[in-house]
Amino acid sequence: MEQSSASPAPRLTVALTFDHDAMSSEVNRGGGAVMISRGEFGPRVGVGRILALLERHGVDATFFVPGHTAVTFPDSVAAIVAAGHELGCHGWTHEDLASLDEAAEREVLVRSRDQIARAWGRVPAGFRAPYWSLSPRTLATVEELGFRYDSSLMADDVRLYRVRHGVVHGTWEGSHLGAPGRLIEVPISWTLDDWPHFEPGRLGLGPMSAPSKVLEIWTEELRWAHANEPGGLLTITMHPEAIGRSSRIAMLERFIETAKGLGSVTFDRLDRAVERWEAAGGVERAAFQAREIV
Ligand SMILES: [Zn+2]
Fold first, then answer.
1. What is the pTM of this model?
2. Ion ligand 1: residue ranges with CB closer than 5 A
3. How far is the CA of 200 from the centre of ligand 1 (A)?
4. Is residue 6, in this structure, part of any structural domain at all?
5. Would you say the C-alpha torsion 267, 93, 149, 230 has a positive or negative sign?
6. 130 CA to centre of ligand 1 in angstroms
7. Residue 69 lies inside a defined structural domain of this protein
8. pLDDT digits over 143-171, tens only?
């Protein structure tokens, strides 16, 4: 939902973000037909249910889309764009960037940025690392390539901050956290990610939470932020092939309804939330002071 410039600032902004991985990661790792089909559920079923839900509630969201998904499922991505949602970058075939050499990593970042720009019709502002896995160079390159924000780090929960470069870790002498650059961080967490709660690994092994458990965790995080972190941004990470399953999409609707019921809650895209934070002076959490390299 867009806020008019005359509206007072919301007490809490909620960002619903969807990583439209589809089959990209399985293609990357040479997965078989069954695991590929799990990814296909995203564009075939999940995205349609998500778009209908978002439209019903007047919610604008952010979709991080691997280049492979944009090329393979152009209609799915076009439907997301037509509904007014934001596109961000998420690698090409969902590579683990920490495993790539410098040239290969740069090629992935450049090609995926350009492909998303073609699909969206504008240059993407946002980047989210596949697997939330970064090489030591990733975020400096992301900043250099003109992205405005990253959403892969966990140093905060509902407060934005600037990504630091030149970090040096020592043992006895401790760590120096570097100096903040231009890139803005929209922090994330596994807690607020549907995947580890819902999706087991290969052969169906691993936990599969009841939607009621995940709804309880997300609702408590929501209530806490609303009560204790005025002006915060709560970012939820989801995947169409996970949240698009019927019991879970029903859960997401209950979460949206609960958030609306709290009052003074706005749902928005990350690019707009980042823009507002910058326009308001880009103030980080006040209590935190990091050592910088001198
Ligand atoms: Zn992903």
1. 0.95
2. 19, 21, 130
3. 15
4. no
5. positive
6. 5
7. yes
8. 999 999 999 999 999 999 999 998 889 99
